[in-house]
Write a structure and sequence with these properties.
Distance between the termini of chain A: 64 Å
Structural class of chain A: alpha/beta
Number of helices of chain A: 11
CATH architecture of the largest domain in chain A: 3-Layer(aba) Sandwich
Oligomer: heterodimer
Radius of gyration of chain B: 22 Å
CATH topology of chain B: Rossmann fold
Number of strands of chain A: 22
Strand content of chain B: 25-35%
CATH class of the largest domain in chain A: Alpha Beta
Number of domains of chain A: 3
Shape of chain A: flat
Low-confidence stretches of chain A: none
Strand order of the largest sheet of chain B: 11-10-9-12-8-1-6-7-13
Largest interface: A-B, 115 and 102 residues
CATH class of chain B: Alpha Beta
CATH superfamily of chain B: HUPs
CATH topology of the largest domain in chain A: Rossmann fold
Distance between the termini of chain B: 62 Å
Low-confidence stretches of chain B: none
């Protein structure tokens, strides 16, 4: 319930902050209408604490005995077929790095949850990045990701060991798996977090919303485990300590074949040279309509090879057939957050911006000094990409 | 076969701007739209209806004004519409929302396919679809770009990390949809809007769907918003004008400074 008390002075501060147009000023008093979602934005700005949200308690649950921070280990196909068929997806190491800090703060242990058909000594790497323990479920049915099978296994482990928090990568897999688990456990899940901390013993989760226009801090105080999916490339990677091996705890979980209700008929992975994927790339060199032809666009690949990056494209460039959809950055493509985003000939439609503005350093080259891409760029270059790109390639070659 | 499509009314986040002085959202003049991913899910459902003669129910949850997105579904060709609207739903997070929608789907009776957008552009969580599937105990296929139905068998083409998969499942199942790049959204013609006003439309409360109040709204939601604040502002771009050679030097400079090159 939300109430405006007599303390309201009609200052109008709450009206503009409401994301849902649910507050109006009537007779110099704030009135809240039915569009209200109880988000609390008005409560925060009220200078006289006149607005109050009261929470009725839900079923109280026993949270005692929940300890430990867990990280879901996401595996990906290994393109190097001379080695094991799977390897650990890099976001897992980022989760362990932040998970280590959270666990230390809580004085609890950090555990990695590894579901696989064949463990290939993964505990070495997991330990190096901070895991104290690896809960290992090794079962032939875990040969590939399946929502029902993976969620069932995690739910079983969670019931048995009662972690206080659990982190997943905000990858397609993580965002498919985590909500299924959270729904079953009736526990809080926060999507696509860009910040995690401990506050009064709780996991404080920060995330962007409204297309990145606002930030929200989210808590899950009354259920365990507190779960988050975490945006790749955001959490700082810890320096690995090789030789620190995590203790492996084998878990025998029965997985019935009938759980596989969705069957994979075909899988195609689109590899870039060096097999780096765009959502995990450290450097992205991206082109838009301004690149004009396939040949010119190809030059961006050359820059990528010299820098060790991945090619990105705006929707405009994809629509023109300059690059395939797998490289598309933006609302209907992939959301990326590399350390360096080089944008050539991209004007910066808002649908593109929402997909790349989380990048660390954005350098944009565009002919139009008023291109919106410059509003999010750290460095803007007004110039012709067609002239600059070949010269940049030459200069980078000289560097080598 | 009976398809239920879940749609949400959202503020057009591409129109949302920040007041640089107060750091708050400027929402004046920001239109409410159907969530674009849901729009695609809706069009997918209508195409399946045209091809196979399925029945399509469009379902939404929100304040009374969210009727407009249900109405749009009807105008595009859905057979009936339901809006879950009740103050008891206010403040629901993705868990409580999934609970309410699952309850409503159960009330609809036999539903074979549930379609929803991959995520909503206001919350960007992608959690409600899988939550509904879990509550109903049916399989989910997320991030789908295409659905084909052959009897009870459903084939979906879906995105995975770094590529795509073609998967097979059987009804009943839930699919979340993301539009392919060649997609264009369709809007209803005036006459269809007019005709849709005579189609069955229901507003259901929490008690209509048999939802238990302690699972709804703020008190039923495991997550709580502790604070909302403006994102850290980026400084204005440092601009370089000059010859292309100077531009290249500048780019190299930046990359050196940030240690991307030696």
């Amino acid at each position: 319930m939300i109430n405006v008390s007599k303390k309201c002075i009609g200052c109008n501060k709450c009206v503009p902050v409401c994301p849902f147009a649910a507050v109006q000023l009537i007779d110099k008093k704030a009135v809240i209408n039915e569009a209200c979602t109880l988000c609390g934005a008005c409560v925060q700005v009220c200078p006289v604490q006149a607005i109050e949200i009261t929470r009725e308690e839900g079923a109280t649950r026993d949270l005692t005995g929940h300890k430990g921070v867990w990280v879901f280990v996401e595996l990906m196909e290994n393109h190097d077929k001379t080695k094991h068929s799977h390897k650990i997806r890099p976001v897992t190491f980022e989760l362990l790095s932040i998970g280590r800090k959270l666990a230390d703060e809580l004085g609890e242990e950090l555990a990695a949850v590894l579901l696989t058909d064949k463990n290939a000594g993964f505990e070495k790497e997991l330990g190096a990045y901070g895991a104290d323990k690896v809960y290992l479920v090794e079962n032939p049915e875990l040969y590939e990701y399946n929502t029902d099978i993976f969620s069932t296994a995690i739910i079983a482990l969670t019931h048995k060991h009662k972690p206080s928090a659990m982190l997943y990568g905000a990858t397609i897999m993580g965002r498919d798996l985590a909500p299924r688990v959270a729904s079953c456990l009736y526990t809080g899940l926060t999507a696509d977090c860009t910040g995690l901390a401990i506050k009064d013993g709780l996991l404080l989760q920060s995330r962007p919303a409204f297309g990145g226009n606002i930030m929200a801090d989210i808590l899950s105080p009354k259920s365990r485990p507190q779960m988050s999916t975490v945006r790749p490339n955001v959490m700082k990677l810890a320096e690995p300590i090789y030789g620190k091996i995590a203790v492996t705890v084998r878990e025998d979980i029965k997985i019935d074949k009938s759980l596989r209700r969705v069957k994979v008929l075909e899988r195609k992975l689109i590899h870039d040279k060096g097999s780096v994927k765009i959502d995990e790339a450290r450097i992205i060199v991206s082109g838009g309509r301004g690149m004009k032809t396939k040949e010119k666009f190809k030059q961006l690949e050359e820059i990528c090879q010299l820098l060790g990056g991945v090619v990105g494209a705006s929707r405009g460039a994809v629509d023109m057939g300059l690059k395939d959809k797998a490289h598309q950055v933006g609302q209907s493509g992939t959301t990326v957050s590399p350390k360096l985003y080089l944008a050539f000939g991209i004007s910066g439609a808002v649908q593109h911006i929402v997909g790349m503005k989380a990048s660390d350093i954005i350098v944009a080259v565009n002919k139009d000094p008023n291109a919106p891409i410059f509003n999010v760029a750290k460095h803007g270059v007004v110039g012709d990409a067609h002239e600059i790109v070949p010269k940049l390639i030459e200069a980078l070659k000289k560097q080598k | 076969m009976h398809i239920a499509v879940c749609v949400k009314q959202v503020p057009d986040t591409t129109e949302v701007k920040i007041n640089p002085e107060t750091g708050t959202l400027i929402r004046a003049g920001v239109p409410s739209i159907i969530n674009p991913y849901d729009h695609f899910a809706l069009q997918t459902a209508i195409e399946l209806k045209k091809a196979h003669g399925f029945r399509v129910t469009v379902i939404s949850m929100g304040p009374p004004q969210a009727k407009s997105v249900v109405q749009m579904g009807l105008a595009l060709g859905a057979d009936d519409g339901v809006l879950l609207s009740d103050m008891a739903f206010a403040g629901s997070d993705t868990w409580a929302t999934s609970y309410a929608i699952a309850k409503a789907v159960k009330k609809l009776g036999k539903v074979d396919i549930i379609l929803a957008g991959m995520q909503a552009i206001d919350g960007d969580t992608a959690q409600t679809g899988p939550g509904v599937a879990q509550q109903l105990g049916i399989p989910q296929v997320t991030f789908c770009v295409k659905i084909d139905v052959d009897g009870r068998k459903i084939i979906a083409r879906k995105l995975i990390d770094g590529g795509y998969e073609v998967v097979e499942t059987r009804a009943p199942a839930l699919f979340t949809m993301i539009m392919p790049p060649d997609y264009t959204s369709k809007y209803p013609a005036f006459l269809d809007v007019h005709a849709s006003l005579r189609k069955p439309y229901h507003v259901w409360s929490a008690s209509d769907i048999g939802a238990e109040n302690h699972y709804l709204g703020l008190k039923g939601s495991p997550t709580q918003v502790a604070r909302i604040y403006p994102p850290p502002q980026r400084e204005k771009a440092a601009m370089t004008n000059g010859s292309s050679q100077e531009a290249v030097e500048k780019i190299l400079d930046i990359m050196r400074k940030e240690h991307f090159i030696e």
